[in-house]
Amino acid sequence: MTEALCAEVLRNLKGNGFAHINQPVSFPTFEAIAAEMGTIELVSEIRIDADHAQQLHQTRKVKTRPSPYKADALGFHSDNPGMDVLAWYCREQDPKSGATLLIDTNDLPSYFTAAELAGLSKLNLWYSVRSKESDEEQLFQIPLLIIDSTGCYVYYQPWLFLDSYDEVQTRLLQKFSEYLADKQQTQTISIELTKRECLFIDNRRILHGRGAISSDSHRHLTRFFIRTFHNLRI
């Protein structure tokens, strides 16, 4: 069963950029699928947790970053660019507003010219690295877009822009924001996991977010960061 589910997840990741297992599976099965795909680099329990949110805030250099441990909405973004796949296992869902929202950036080459894509590949953002969540983060720079023979790879966190960009880069960021706004209006994918369902996304293709939830929500997802053994684009 695990091998078949893993093959299905990989097939959907390569084809659609995400894979939703919309049937109940055990957590050991979810973990086995992830381990079959690659190395699980980080495990996090995503739920409202004021103490955890405060601890994370204290270790961050950019204090305005949102937190998945708070009830506030999370805008569309990608996570650690070194991770190929993000995966969530639903332990409990918010009955009103717990959907995970996705935007597929696979159509970037049809929206931007070759020159604009090249410009985005030289437009840097900050990304953070820490050995564990209790460690103070270190900030490094990486381009918003990496282009190679297999396609375009996106890294986007609007709260980690550099302090300033030149005129050309500012225009490109504005166009990218307009691209996302249009996608958000017309092509947002909404997936509301029910208990024991799971979701895998290509972290370098799919941007994810979440609407605001109540401060007393019991929504609880276990999240994996996965470095895969597989090329998701070929």
Question: Can you offer a commentary on this structure?
Answer:
The longest helix has 20 residues, at 167-186. The protein has helices spanning 2-16, 27-37, 50-59, 108-111, 114-120, 167-186; strands at 18-21, 38-46, 74-77, 85-92, 100-104, 124-129, 138-143, 145-148, 151-154, 189-191, 198-202, 206-210, 220-228. The chain is globular, with a radius of gyration of 17 Å. The chain has one domain: Clavaminate synthase-like (Double-stranded beta-helix), CATH 3.60.130.10. α1 packs across α2 (27-37). The chain is of the alpha+beta class and 234 residues long. The mean pLDDT is 93. The relative contact order is 0.29. The strands form four sheets. The chain has a five-stranded antiparallel sheet with strand order 1-11-4-13-2, with helices on one face. The chain contains six helices and 13 strands.
Low-confidence stretches: none
Number of helices: 6
Count of separate structural domains: 1
The CATH topology turns out to be Double-stranded beta-helix
Q: Order of strands in the sheet with the most strands?
A: 1-11-4-13-2
Over all CA atoms, what is the radius of gyration?
17 Å
Q: Assign the CATH superfamily.
A: Clavaminate synthase-like
Q: Name the overall outline.
A: globular
Structural class comes to alpha+beta
Sheet with the most strands, sense and barrel status = 5 strands, antiparallel
What is the mean pLDDT?
A: 93
Q: What percent of residues adopt helix (DSSP H or I)?
A: 25-40%
Give the SSE map:
Elements: H1 2-16, E1 18-21, H2 27-37, E2 38-46, H3 50-59, E3 74-77, E4 85-92, E5 100-104, H4 108-111, H5 114-120, E6 124-129, E7 138-143, E8 145-148, E9 151-154, H6 167-186, E10 189-191, E11 198-202, E12 206-210, E13 220-228
Antiparallel strand pairs: 1-11, 2-13, 3-12, 4-11, 4-13, 5-10, 5-12, 6-7, 8-9
Helix pairs in contact: 1-2
